[in-house]
Amino acid sequence: FLISENKDIPEKTIAKTRKYLLEFSVMPSMRFLWAAGGAAKRDNTTIYNCAFAKINCIEAFSECLFILMCGTGFGFSVEEEEVEKLPAIPAIRSGQDIEKVLIDDSKEGWADSVHELMTSLYEGQNIYFDYSDIRPEGARLAVMGGRASGPQPLVKLHDFIRETMHNAQGRKLTSLEAHDICNQIAEIVVVGGVRRSSQISLSDLESDSMRHAKDWPYPIKRAMANNSAIYKEKPSAAEFLKEWGSLALSGTGERGIFNLSAAQSKAPSRRYAPLIQGTNPCGEIMLRDMQFCNLTEVVVRPDDDLDSLLDKVECATWLGVIQSTFTDFPYLRKEWKKNCDVERLLGVSLTGQMDNPTLMNSEALKALKSRVLRISRKASSLLGVNMPAATTCVKPSGTVSQLVDSASGVHPRWSDYYIRRYRIAARDPLFKMLKEQGVPCKPENGQTKRKASTWVLSFPVKAPEGCVKRTDVTALEQLKHYKNLQHNWCEHNASMTVYVRDEEWFEVGNWVYQNWDIINGVSFLPYDSGLYKQAPYEEIDQRTYESFIKKVPIIDYSQLSKFEMEDNTQGKAEYACVGDKCDI
Q: What does pTM read for this prediction?
């Protein structure tokens, strides 16, 4: 479906692509791998990693639900000037005497129900729904894979929207209220059985409510999004210190920095920069309102040289251009297709950089970028589409790095010994098999053993001998490499989470302020992992590792057939990419 149906692609390119995919040397969009076949053909939304939209109309909320149900991450802006475009909420009548609206059991049906409910509430009329057509909890999802969640998550979302809008009668929604509705959407999608719900919420620098949205304790739904402040110009030193101090003291690295002025000024000349308004949840792709990001990846190995990387980069670029031709989004507003057709964005990324750090020098990066641009022109011309408006980035690569066993994106390995945690649905046959065999597991944060819908599996890991680890680099060394990538490789951004030791906060803040013009978006977290419970990575010592490894059984995957009597592939559920550190 990805390449064999297109006769314009050279046979040599097809053969090389197959070879590199089988060798785990180059990877396409992981969404495309997940949804290839019926799901991707039905709606191309499913093939894209992430999206961005402004929350300024009812359609933005229903599209948020639809896009997340397709397995695609969703970035959004709740800047006051955008949320203000929503109408004021009048006094709301009960609606008990109105016939219930029957919900179709599909992604479109669920999203339509949000649109219908909010439209009615904005007209001063409550409505209620008939959920009888929604498949019961545990029913198989034939096209997207997984198991149905039943109607209860959707009921929870409808109730939350009603409550929020009832509380806002006589005025407009605030940025925080719009943000919370989007977060609630993400939470019910995770429960609903798709791979994950990743979000980033962009808000005004001056918004005090958004600055403190994740002050502990906060509602668990807010863990679904990374929160970042939008900087439209370089702040004064006093303004920067206020936000930087809040970030450092939060223990969660929030709010993060999204430097819109740098994103626009750094854009290549072939892009119309003023239309860049946001980013995807992990911050590596600069996006218009209503636009998708389109990622491919090169895996950098310790034995790679420049020639081998140039060959891989060529293949990854071809894959990206091919992916960019899939722009059929029947449920979404027409602007989504228009923006993707006009810009044909690529996101060619390099993962495993710290497995071969000497090769990541400025001259090599320039040569790799030049090859990407040359192949982009050639491939887009052969396929009859526009030259991509921007091409290169570094994505966090949390999933790919686990699959191909590499360091993740721009980041070093975590430590010599660490615990790696994975989230998995309680209904997943794979979880049932692993639990029966004795793999250590605990309920998701805020859930109980009796009622947990998501469980956290823990595995001890030993890093490869001689690799670069998080313990080997300072925060400033990480930022120096970020600057190298921004100057010599990225037309978008290098998504980086910098782990800051307690004594480094002052010098790191000073570096950020002095290098403001090259920073699109960087996340900063405490070196010790901050306040996150059951974080994806946790450093341990050798003794703990050796004790832990004895508790982990040798897994017999042949036993999976006892639990999986039919195809019901179920993806994991992760919190937001940086907000809960699923990236590294």
A: 0.91
